[in-house]
Amino acid sequence: GLPGLVVDRYGDTLVAQFGSTGAERWKGSIADALLAATGLTRLYERSDAQAREWEGLPVQTGWLRGEGATAITIREHDWQLTLDVAEGHKTGYYLDQRDSRRRFADAVKQYGVKSVLNCFSYTGGFSVAALAGGASEVVSVDSSGPALERAKAHVELNGFDTSRHQAWDADVNATLRRCLQEGRRFDAIVLDPPKFAPTVAHAERAARAYKDINRLAFMLLNDGGLLYTFSCSGGISPDLFHKIVAGAGLDAGVDGYIVERLSAAADHPQTVCFPEGDYLKGLALLKR
């Protein structure tokens, strides 16, 4: 891989983030090489990540090669999703979680899950997966109104009964506490928060935040319920994340079986000499 370069493909469009001075220096050559390798003609630049600030580089977005509409519809497994490459997080969507969404849909079906709480839902990828798996009640929680509107549109786009889905524009931590106070319980909960610890220096503070939301999630799960919990923080190692979740379980007074360890999709490669590349880690747990 090339340090500081992220490229996602959505249909006939490439979206690239140039996050380092080296990648920026060779941007034109890299863009031409990418289009030559894929046979595509459109490449949109989304160089708006914080890493550019650390490199002393300005934000740059827009068509680097080609032109046209930025709204795109993609197919992920058995469902459709929409995005706008000019807006939203990262390059417009979180492709690194697509394998985990498939596994979640399968688990919902396998365990007969009926009620799902999807926290930090963004545009509802895990919510659509839950509905595809057969859940009858799915709640998407996020603090972004536009993201939730797209989540609701995704439910309709895939032909699901909209009465099976609720979108809550709210703070996740406060929502977890409120649900606990109201005595609500769920068969499955997804915790897919934003990056709490971009570096190891932030790990201690992030560990407290991860532990708190996982503790609350354990308490909100029905017995035999599923918890799909993730960290996309490079400053939190898989081993540390496991310890944090274990501590959350101890504080909640519950235990769980590890059904599966989860990571980024296969096209997000990790190398032996760059352990920080193992940024996305997750645990699929079954509450005992």
Can you give a write-up of this model?
The longest helix is centred in the C-terminal third of the chain and has 18 residues, at 203-220. Helix 5 (125-133) links the parallel strand 7 (115-119) and strand 8. The chain is of the alpha/beta class and 288 residues long. The chain has 2 domains: 5-68, RNA methyltransferase domain (HRMD) like (Transcription Regulator spoIIAA, 2-Layer Sandwich), CATH 3.30.750.80; 93-287, Vaccinia Virus protein VP39 (Rossmann fold). The protein is built from 9 helices and 13 strands.
Computed over alpha carbons, the radius of gyration is 19 Å
Quaternary state, please? single chain
What is the name of the CATH superfamily of the largest domain?
Vaccinia Virus protein VP39
Proportion of strand residues: 25-35%
Form type: globular
Mean pLDDT: 95
What is the CATH class name of the largest domain? Alpha Beta
Question: What's the tally of helices?
Answer: 9
Q: How many domains make up the coordinates?
A: 2
Low-confidence stretches: none
Residue share in helices?
25-40%
* Termini gap: 41 Å
Largest sheet: 7 strands, mixed
Total strands? 13
Q: What's the SSE pattern? A: EEHHEHEEEHEHEHEHEHEHEE
Largest sheet strand order? 9-8-7-10-11-13-12
Structure class: alpha/beta
| CATH fold name of the largest domain | Rossmann fold
Please tell me the CATH architecture of the largest domain by its name.
3-Layer(aba) Sandwich
